[in-house]
Amino acid sequence: MNTVRGIFSFFLAPFVSAWRRRQVLRELSIREIRTTFTGSMLGVSWLVLQPLLTLTVYALVFGGLLGFGRDRGMAFVSQMFVGLIVFHAFSEPVSRASRLVVSRPNYVTKVVFPLDLLPWPTVALAALHATISTVLLLVMHTAFVGVPAWTALALPLVLLPVLLLGLSLSWVLASVGVYVRDTQEVVRVVLQLLFFLCPVVWTLANVENELHRSLVLLNPLAIAIESARSLLTGTEGPGALFLLAFAAATLLLAAIGHAFFRRTQDGFADVL
Amino acid sequence: MTLVRHYDAATAPRGPLRHLKSLIGYPGLVWRNRYMLQNSMRRDLLGRVHGSFLGVYWILLQPSFQFLLFYFVFGVLYRRSDIPAADFAVYLFSGVIVFLSLVEATTTCCTTIVDNGNLVKKVAFPSEVLPVHVALVSLVTYLVGAIVCLAVGLIAGVLHLSWAILALPLVLVIQFVMTLGLGLMLANLYVFVRDVGQVWRIVGQAWQFLTPVFWMPKQLEEALGPNGAWWVAELNPAYSLVMAHRIALGGSDPMLGDLWSNIGTAAAWATFFLVLGYSTFMASKHKYADLV
Hints:
The complex is a heterodimer. By secondary structure, chain A is mainly alpha-helical. In chain A, 75% of the residues lie in helices and 0% in strands. Chain A has one domain. Chain A is built from 12 helices and no strands. By secondary structure, chain B is mainly α. Chain B is built from 13 helices and no strands. The radius of gyration of chain B is 21 Å and the shape is globular. The mean pLDDT of chain B is 84.
């Protein structure tokens, strides 16, 4: 009975700690969104404008100028945009994770602050970005390619685990970043490389070799991107069971990341 | 040396290009500030590798990894049957390193005035020197990538060393001038409208896709047909620059075009951007102190 309860609390720990401080979390998230756009004339409307402009640019470049024919061109744009949404949902929080604690030494040394909350606002912002981009994508897909398959309703089921994956890695990196100062640089480079390793600007459909295919699918992000694509177009993709397994795996990773952060955070004050 | 300059509104030159006269003195100004530039460059470059396990090798490892990745993804995984894997990887890589340094430097330039607010507010400090070191640092990152590209290309037999490599310093100067011109323009705009940062990120992406970095000119001709307006792509300021870089590094494909006409076009664009960037920067420089 105790072990069951232990396992349960291990899994829920990251969410329990966030739920208890939900008011702080809300303030932090709002501030996160505000500071991203401070000083800009159009302010928060950039949240919508940025993905809209990006999408327009892609449509113009790949659907128009570089002309792959209108239909195929727009289908390509939609495929690529799906890849970008999933990749950014992961990379946005991760790219900033290693500076989360280091840039706020006062939170560590001066006040008592639940440090494990710090990655949440960046993930919240990424979730907001992903949501807005997905809505825009669906609109564009309906207008130029065709009505998305009803399975597109399950897109959140792919995006949520990806966000969780980013969250769990953010905890690990936030902690490692305190002890190893060049984490930021390493993460930047690794993300740059990962971008090309994920099927964002290319699709798995063009990979013919079976061995290469399975190599690509070792990357969880590649799985997520390809699943999202098949959900959008209604082609045969991952089953419901697979999506559940994926979500469960990321839940486990989130619990591990959170536990890692809690274990290592006692030493922060000595280093900062 | 006169310490006080008299200003007379009646005799002062007018018009948007009135600052062009001081452009002649710009290289001298940069030269006089060389110690500051040297220091900030050293700090910038060493800061990236400071304290890492691999030290300076890190700078070299990063482009090498990137090249291997390109080879694997675009040569092996996503294979085009008509182009050999190594050829395409070298083609891709030689374009990406040019563009990466261009986009990275101009993006950094956006915030360079605002970030150095305490320097800009000093009357004696010539703030037009600030983007220079960003452009220089981007040349260093480009050069490291170019060395990796050249080494791999020569070993794989894709690139052939020719006299064109002697033009590389000239191409680098052109890239420097273009980066600097764009940097001055963006740094100036960003002080007044912070949205420029967001816009430039998207424009930079679009620019990269419109330049033959990921695709080859002949692919575009094939896609658009013989009557297609594929020559429009050549109006792109970065087109000639990227091609000139490729020829200088030893690419010999006829689709790259002629070395000197590419250099000429790129130089013309670079001069245009420098004149535009410098004159807009100098025209509103006096307002910076209040805005940063």
